[in-house]
Amino acid sequence: GLDFEVTAMGTIIEGPPARIFDLLESCHAKMKESHHRVTSKILIDDRGDDTGRIRGKVETLERVLGHKLKA
């Protein structure tokens, strides 16, 4: 599957763009089955073949701060 992290403000998904767009379309269609109106906000940060960014960003911040962040 795709790497993901659920946060208080949304879900972060990492992977090949085509697979992510397929997932987004599937999720949107599923919500439309039971709701008249569905709104989605999508932010794309495309760094090419760079992977492992979800955990890597947190690890970099922890290193700079000198301590672990709350999970």
TL;DR of this structure?
With 71 residues, the protein is of the alpha+beta class.
**Neighbour order of strands in the largest sheet:** 1-2
Distance between the termini: 22 Å
Mean pLDDT: 89
Number of helices: 2
- Please estimate the helix content: 40-55%
Largest sheet: 2 strands, antiparallel
Overall form? elongated
User: Would you count the extended β strands for me?
Assistant: 2
Low-confidence stretches: none
What is the CA-atom radius of gyration, in angstroms? Answer: 15 Å
SS-based class: alpha+beta
Strand content: 5-15%
Compressed to H and E, one letter per element, the order equals EEHH
Layout of secondary structure:
Elements: E1 3-7, E2 10-14, H1 17-32, H2 53-65
Antiparallel strand pairs: 1-2
Please tell me about this protein's structure.
This protein has two helices and two strands, in the order ββαα. The protein is of the alpha+beta class. The protein has a two-stranded antiparallel ribbon with strand order 1-2. The mean pLDDT is 89.
